[in-house]
Amino acid sequence: MHSIDLGFINNNHTSNDIIQIISEQQQNTIAIGHSLGFLYLLKQFPHKFHHYVAINSFLRFSKNDDYPAGVPSRILQRMSKGIDKDAHLVLSQFYQQCQSSDSIPTQINLARLKTGLQYLEIEDFRNALPLLSDKLTVIASDSDPVVSAAMTKDSFKEHPIHWVQDTTHTLPITQPDLCAKTIKNIALTS
Length: 190
Description:
This is AB hydrolase-1 domain-containing protein. By secondary structure, this protein is α/β, with parallel strands linked by helices. Helix content is 46%, strand content 11%. The protein has a single domain (16-189), classed as Rossmann fold (3-Layer(aba) Sandwich). Strands 1-2-3-4 form a 4-stranded parallel β-sheet, with helices on both faces.
């Protein structure tokens, strides 16, 4: 099992060696992405994973004419500018919105955070849904304060969504047993 750390905090990031191993093992891998992590998987790797699990995720984040449930770009741009001024304040506000009780890390990689915000603003993988639909499981909080139910529905259209009664953006933390059980069932049945 391998994990990818996007390197936003504590100067952790996944080595190129691990990325290469993941690339080589895609056809036998269940790829699990939380929030932006799912978008990252779709951006960085061809759509060849054995199965995908999207937790509190989306195929597009920012609002546009054909995606009204998205978050307005101005909010992401404001966060990006705020990172330059006071990254701890921006992260603190985001953690509060997510309803996360984690403490704000002392080491923050500003460049990687800004890259993540750019992904949220410009990336759009809604056209990939037909390629993923037979190998995709979506788990979403019904009252997610970051990824609204409307955004989730808009992203995944008619694809089945496993709705969880939860008011956070942190299902892997607030509902770890449910997430693990879902992933285990996928591993046993696919």
